[in-house]
Design brief:
211 residues; alpha/beta; 39% helix
């Protein structure tokens, strides 16, 4: 018999992506397809917040309703053409090796003028409430080292608070501040891959969203 372990892979998408993922999981549950019992949840960027709440056992329909309610602790993101140009310059101004490109984007993020790290952590904390690392299943949260460009997968064994790991995974370069944890600073896991679905290799059943 093959590997019957199940993995749920949740990728980026910002606030809209969070609502989309909650709606999708809630809609599938209403039709008898429960994604919340996955053995492994991989969360990247927006998917890290969704994955953390689902892994904590929270009802996806209630999470969707909360997400659609008027914003409370959220901070408006400052996006635009100028940021896209900065990404392009960081990607092209040097060797094209993927890790080095990520490191250049990290340096851009470290130099960017954003809201403070504490304010951003508070906003992320408002999404998670009292959720902590789950004990009954694996939750992997991805982030990228802002200095080296290396991928890091945070788990409950790392001693990093869940809200900090999620904030690191959601730290879009140039929009949000890099997050301090484990002796360095971290940027959005989506800089390496929108979903980092390769981390679920070896699992018999894998569902990846958003597509």
């Amino acid at each position: 018999m093959g590997d019957e372990r199940r993995a749920l892979v949740l990728g980026g998408g910002g606030i809209t992506g969070i609502a989309w993922m909650y709606g999708l999981v809630a809609g599938l549950a209403a039709d008898g397809i429960d994604l919340t019992g996955a053995d492994l949840v991989v969360g990247t960027s927006a998917g890290s917040a969704v994955g953390a709440n689902l892994a904590a056992g929270r009802d996806p329909q209630a999470l969707l309703e909360t997400q659609l309610a008027p914003p409370s602790g959220e901070i408006a993101a400052n996006l635009g053409l100028r940021l896209a140009v900065r990404y392009g310059v960081a990607a092209l101004a040097g060797p094209r090796d993927a890790r080095r490109v990520r490191a250049r984007i990290g340096r851009m993020a470290l130099a960017a003028d954003t809201v403070g790290e504490a304010e951003r952590l508070a906003a992320i904390g408002s999404r998670l409430g009292d959720a902590g690392w789950p004990s009954g299943r694996d939750l992997w949260i991805t982030a990228v080292d802002a200095y080296t460009g290396d991928l890091r997968v945070f788990t409950r064994d790392d001693g990093v608070p869940l809200a900090t790991a999620v904030a690191a995974s959601c730290a879009v370069p140039g929009v949000w501040p890099p997050v301090t944890a484990a002796g360095t600073r971290w940027i959005d896991g989506g800089v390496r891959s929108m979903a980092n679905a390769d981390l679920a290799a070896g699992y018999g059943r894998v569902v990846e969203e958003p597509r």
